[in-house]
Automatic annotation (TrEMBL):
Pfam families: FA_desaturase (PF00487). Residues 51-143, 147-249 form the Fatty acid desaturase domain. InterPro entries: FA_desaturase_dom. The keyword Membrane applies. This is Fatty acid desaturase. The chain crosses the membrane at residues 20-41, 47-69, 147-163. Keywords: Membrane, Transmembrane, Transmembrane helix.
């Protein structure tokens, strides 16, 4: 049976299988760089370019950890398995930056309920400027409790496991902060800011007109396909390009049936 003709149960199992496989790969790659960089890295001039590449890759993987947790919040990682979604999501947020899944879960659902307006914790809070909006975003997702947890982990790394503090900053703190910038710019600010063109619907979200590869590299498709995510929150990050094709095919069929020419 093809994926298109699969039963809902088969489709859910396939989604879980693919999603968990991607999640395992992202977590494994993140841990490999994290452990190598913090505990086994030996600095030399020749290794600086390698370290730069590792930090850039780790920044992207850190964004991926958050996106996996985000899929978990929608039950899109493993449909029909709420405990598994919660466990994987909480683990990814803890690895990424000691974030609390239980705290972020209701905030994110508020974002979907009140997207781009009052009541949306991701919105700019009255200051639409980039810096003001980012300050609001940062306050929403980062707390004193999280900073305390990061400090405890850093102390364990340095005092008990002998990790250099500089390595912790370079291979954990910098990628985490870089991922914050990716998530905010490509996953929040660009999709939800006011523009010259009005929003298409109540979701007040736009999808960036960029190539799928660039969409993947910037924010795991949450920039290039953000509107599609709001239309279908149960679609995982890796399924958003196909979701857009489905919407376009439906619009084409509707246009043909009504005698209207669909938009390109």
């Amino acid at each position: 049976m093809s994926a298109a003709g699969a039963s809902p149960a088969d489709a859910a199992r396939r989604q879980a299988r693919i999603g968990l496989s991607f999640a395992a790969a992202i977590v494994a790659a993140w841990l490999a760089i994290h452990i190598t960089g913090i505990f086994f890295w030996r600095w030399s001039l020749a290794m600086v370019p390698v370290a730069v590449v590792m930090v850039l890759v780790q920044t992207w993987l850190s964004t991926g950890l958050f996106i996996i947790a985000h899929d978990s919040m929608h039950g899109a990682l493993a449909p029909g398995h709420p405990r598994l979604n919660r466990m994987v999501g909480a683990t990814c947020l803890s690895l990424y930056a000691c974030l609390s899944y239980a705290t972020l879960l209701p905030q994110h659902h508020l974002h979907h309920r009140h997207a781009g307006g009052a009541g949306d914790p991701d919105f700019h809070g009255g200051d639409p400027r980039l810096i003001g909006w980012f300050r609001q975003f940062f306050r929403t997702y980062y707390s004193h409790g999280q900073i305390a947890r990061i400090t405890i982990v850093a102390l364990v790394y340095t005092l008990l496991l002998g990790a250099p503090l500089g390595n912790i900053a370079i291979f954990w703190a910098i990628p985490a902060l870089g991922a914050v910038a990716q998530l905010f710019v490509f996953g929040t600010w660009l999709p939800h800011r006011e523009g010259d063109e009005p929003f298409a619907d109540r979701h007040r979200a736009r999808s960036a007109r960029i190539a799928p590869t660039l969409s993947l590299l910037t924010c795991f498709h949450f920039g290039g396909y953000h509107h599609e995510h709001h239309l279908s929150p149960g679609t995982p990050w890796w399924g958003l390009p196909a979701r857009r094709r489905d919407y376009q095919a439906s619009a084409h069929q509707l246009g043909n049936a009504s005698g209207l020419r669909p938009r390109p």
